[in-house]
Amino acid sequence: MNSVKDRTKELIDLLPSEDVEVLLKVAERLAEWEATRELLEDKEIMVSIKRGLKELERGDTISLEELRKNV
What we know:
The protein is built from 4 helices and no strands. By secondary structure, the protein is mainly alpha-helical. 0% of the residues are buried.
């Protein structure tokens, strides 16, 4: 894997700054997508999200002040 990273760094050094900026944006999007995918694959998190959405639909919420008191 290090050789891949080393080669990538070498290639990046050859690119003009504008292309490096585009590449950076793509890499950031990939990292965001990976984080999203990890969340979507976590069954416990998905159950919690679905539970929270149902609570919102029922109007089962608390105010920000209440939340701060209970933390």
